[in-house]
């Protein structure tokens, strides 16, 4: 079993990394992809809505530390949203991202996805 303080540090680090990653996607990656692949705009909008839901859940976790039942429910919800989110990204965006030419002004794009 992991001591509570180690778990708290891990959770804080994870939440910070996920938040930073999503902010990077929203500000840098998705606008580039939407401009180059207009057919992805509605999917990218859905991913941004996921980011709002995920941020909301992450924001509530700290308040629920003393309530293991509610904390567990929030973590279950977070896991479900993240799993669906990642599967969707992988199915719809992996090929598009892999096909990008890294020499064509993608520095913000590559920096934003470095958390993966």
UniProtKB/TrEMBL annotation:
InterPro entries to which the protein is assigned, alphabetical: Hemerythrin-like (IPR012312)
Pfam families documented for this protein: Hemerythrin
Task: Fetch the Gene3D superfamilies from UniProt.
Answer: nmb1532 protein domain like
The record places domain Hemerythrin-like at 7-95
This chain belongs to which protein, by name? Hemerythrin-like domain-containing protein
Organism, by scientific name, is Winogradskya consettensis
Q: What is the lineage of its organism?
A: Bacteria, Bacillati, Actinomycetota, Actinomycetes, Micromonosporales
